[in-house]
């Protein structure tokens, strides 16, 4: 996302924190994640200082953060190794000069999503399910993100702005599942989520509610008791799809948060993106999948990178991805091997590779 548009997402949302925190002060746990979010690192120099990285990373990080702002929650930071510029978690969030590379085939809207928007904030590409962009905000800014150029500023900001999307969903009886995505839908307060989820629950042909979120991974205290209560307050079957790319993410408070989610009775799936120099080897993928299933989280998709401008340095050849999956099949139980897929504009499903 170019800076102007991105400001409509994370920055605008973060400007509202003081209000919800004050309103929710009766519940300590609900406050905590707002505080954690407010404490996230947004300044490249601070990240470099905290991790004791070499000075040569400073200028590039400042430059590339102008393109797409830096954001790293402290919990995620605490799982990185100091003094190691090759840390696999750091590489997902550290702005680099390579983001300015112009590479043929890597374009701003790689998924051509404008064609699939029947109402503001609603994407409908596949049968039986539609995706609501709940907010443009995220708690972490992943440098490889396919939404780094997304025009979130055009999406609904107030609840009344949802009406056209809710009308389309109500009128289409073929829809059985709504995905909340973004950005990250768990950046919304529980109160706002509750209003949206209650509205969706009243649409009788809907059966399932799926939430795509990275917050349980990068800001684990978002998985509060009040959020779990909210997930189970709807008649819709809840499914949570988290996003972890490396086994080093799925430890400590993150592992606890995933365990809490699973034990509350929610189906929890993981999707990962295949990323060069981060998780593009069978040992790393096997360890990630094993840690996930140990926690009761099922590896769902391994995505081939979407070819979005500024992300070419993360791309792994498809061939290598296929070889990794072949090796995982030999090493792991069938349920622990994710489907290796790529999104192809116009296809009716994520295409297996
Ligand atoms: C990825 C995606 C989905 C979900 O696809 P599944 O294969 O069901 O996980 C739904 N809608 C849109 C617009 C998507 O991009
Ligand atoms: S959390 Fe998801 S949507 Fe947000 S920056 Fe990361 S990959 Fe993109």
Q: Write down how many β-strands occur, each being a DSSP E stretch of 2 or more residues.
A: 9
Q: List the domain count as a whole number.
A: 1
Identify every distinct bound molecule in the structure, by name, code or SMILES: pyridoxal-5'-phosphate, iron/sulfur cluster
Query: How many strands, which pairing sense, and closed or not: the largest β-sheet?
Result: 9 strands, mixed
Report the CATH superfamily: Aldolase class I
| Distinct helical segment count | 14
Measured distance between first and last alpha carbons: 28 Å
Principal-axes shape call: globular
Give the oligomer, counting copies of the same chain as homo and different chains as hetero: single chain
CATH topology value: TIM Barrel
What attributes does this structure have?
353 residues, alpha/beta, TIM Barrel, globular, disordered N terminus, binds iron/sulfur cluster
Short description:
The chain has 353 residues and is α/β, with parallel strands linked by helices. Helix content is 36%, strand content 14%. A nine-stranded mixed sheet has the order 1-2-3-4-5-6-7-8-9.
Structural summary, described in words:
The protein is globular. The relative contact order is 0.12. The chain has helices at residues 3-14, 18-23, 28-38, 44-50, 58-67, 74-78, 90-93, 163-171, 190-201, 215-218, 225-231, 252-263, 282-294, 318-331; strands at 122-126, 129-135, 177-182, 208-212, 237-243, 267-273, 298-303, 339-342, 351-352. The longest helix has 14 residues, at 318-331. It has 353 residues and is of the alpha/beta class. The structure holds pyridoxal-5'-phosphate (PLP) and iron/sulfur cluster. The site of iron/sulfur cluster (SF4) has 11 residues, from loops.
């Amino acid at each position: 996302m170019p800076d102007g548009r991105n400001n409509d997402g994370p920055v605008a949302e973060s400007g509202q924190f003081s209000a919800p925190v004050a309103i929710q002060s009766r519940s300590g746990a609900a406050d905590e994640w707002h505080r954690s979010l407010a404490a996230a690192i947004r300044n490249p120099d601070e990240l470099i200082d905290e991790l004791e990285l070499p000075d040569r990373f400073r200028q590039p990080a400042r430059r590339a953060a102008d393109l797409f702002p830096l954001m790293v929650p402290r919990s995620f930071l605490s799982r990185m190794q100091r003094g190691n510029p090759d840390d696999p978690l750091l590489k997902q969030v550290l702005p680099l000069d390579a983001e300015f590379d112009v590479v043929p085939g890597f374009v701003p809207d790689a998924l051509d999503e404008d064609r699939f928007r029947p109402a503001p904030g609603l994407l409908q590409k596949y049968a039986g399910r539609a995706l609501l962009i709940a907010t443009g905000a995220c708690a972490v800014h992943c440098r490889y993100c396919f939404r780094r150029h997304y025009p979130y500023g055009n999406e609904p900001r107030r609840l009344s702005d949802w009406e056209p999307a809710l009308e389309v969903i109500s009128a289409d009886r073929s829809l059985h599942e709504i995905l909340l995505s973004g950005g990250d839908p768990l950046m919304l307060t529980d109160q706002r989520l509750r209003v949206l989820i209650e509205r969706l629950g009243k649409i009788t042909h809907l059966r399932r509610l799926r939430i795509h979120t990275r917050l349980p991974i990068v800001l684990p205290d978002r998985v509060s008791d009040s959020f779990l209560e909210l997930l189970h307050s709807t008649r819709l079957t809840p499914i949570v799809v988290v996003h972890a790319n490396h086994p080093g993410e799925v430890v400590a408070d993150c592992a606890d948060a995933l365990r809490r989610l699973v034990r509350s009775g929610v189906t929890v799936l993981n999707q990962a993106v295949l990323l060069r120099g981060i998780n593009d080897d069978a040992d790393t993928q096997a360890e990630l999948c094993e840690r996930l299933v140990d926690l009761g989280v099922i590896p769902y998709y391994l995505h081939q990178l979407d070819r979005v401008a500024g992300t070419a340095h993360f791309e792994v050849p498809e061939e290598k991805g296929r070889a990794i999956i072949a090796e995982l099949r030999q090493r792991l139980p069938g349920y622990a091997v994710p489907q290796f897929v790529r999104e192809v504009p116009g296809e009716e499903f994520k295409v297996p590779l």
